[in-house]
Design a protein that fits this description.
heterodimer, A: 256 residues, mainly alpha, elongated, B: 180 residues, Rna Polymerase Sigma Factor, Chain: A, 78% helix, globular
Chain lengths: 256, 180
Amino acid sequence: MSCERYRDWMTSAAADELPESRAAELQSHVHECAACRQELQRVRTLFAAIDLGVTAQTAAEHSPRLMEQVRQRIRDQASVTPWWNARWVQAVACAAVLVVAASIWTLWPRTGARHELTASSARPSPVQAVRPAAAATEKPKITPQRHGSMVTSMVALARPVRKTNARRIERQRAAPEITEVPEVIVQPGQMEAVMRFAQALNSRQIDGAKLLADLKAADQPLDIRPLKTPELADDKASGTSEGGSEKNFIRSKDSR
Amino acid sequence: MKLVNQFAAGGDASLEREFQERLAECATLAFRVALAILRDRAEAEDVAQEALLRAYRNFHRLRDRTRFRGWLVRIAWRMAMDHRRAGKRRENREQDVARDDARGLTHASQTAEEIAASREFQGRLAEEMEMLPGKLRIVMVMAGIEGYDTHEVAALLGLPEGTVKSRLRLARKRLAEKLR
């Protein structure tokens, strides 16, 4: 067998990776072939030289000033307070946060005016008649932000409504007695009459309290009492009082 | 910086003491790792210094303090590789010169010590080490540093010992094939 084949095995043999059968074959060949024996020895020497070379490359010691420099830099870093730890920076940051929070609180859009529970608000508010056209102009308009995407515009439309409803429900729970301007559904053609009625109420031509009392009285349930059956005239005339009214009633029917 | 502030305020003296102890113990390790990559003492010292400072800044984040050495090795390794890449162009010129000189590295009559001591062999070995994949190279370097055995290298790098052995064998074989 050619020596070239065995030389291919030599690196694996020096690295202890050659299978046992091949290792035995290589050993028997090396005993016979002086050139291959020399080559195998050279490869093994090379492996040892690689290990020694790698160790030699890293075997150096650092200079003593390395430790001094590291400790000095640690001390320098410890003595320098970072700018974000300065007290004035922290104070400014807190103030900025407060300003932003207050701005958001005051400028956040709301659908209705916030009602404070004061003495004036406890009084019944006067009826305000507002024309639908005028009322429509006072309502805040929600305009979708167009960013070129239908999804974003739909989200922009949907979000304020959800928040508005949530806020209104929350407000009603918190202060159910809040007096708001009543909204009245007016049938078509009755708007002018309602307007005149409201003006009359505001100008006290109509006493609202009395009107309300009358309405309440009109809403009282009927007093239902047991029905009293009147005695029939012919029963009185016959003079039979012992038999009871029912009996008399039947008798009177029979008499008919 | 948190640790720095703690140290400055004297709030965690034990942490500082612990780091200082490890600093004295591991500075040589960081230097040698950097030297294996850079092959220049001055540059290796600079990188080791930066690696130790980075370790100092982040020491409070290290949960398992027993892994400090492996952690520091990885920091030094990464920083040395970055430093190496930065000076790659200059290094390529040096390698070209070394490649021209590296003819007939080994002779049958030479011993392993003689071969390893030769400048040509060292240059060629360093060049071939750079060509190795990182996972083979770091195992080879760690095995060379202070003569760590595979068990210690495995503990240091957080790898199974069998993996370290196979990688070490593969790295040596590749180097031998290149240098043969």
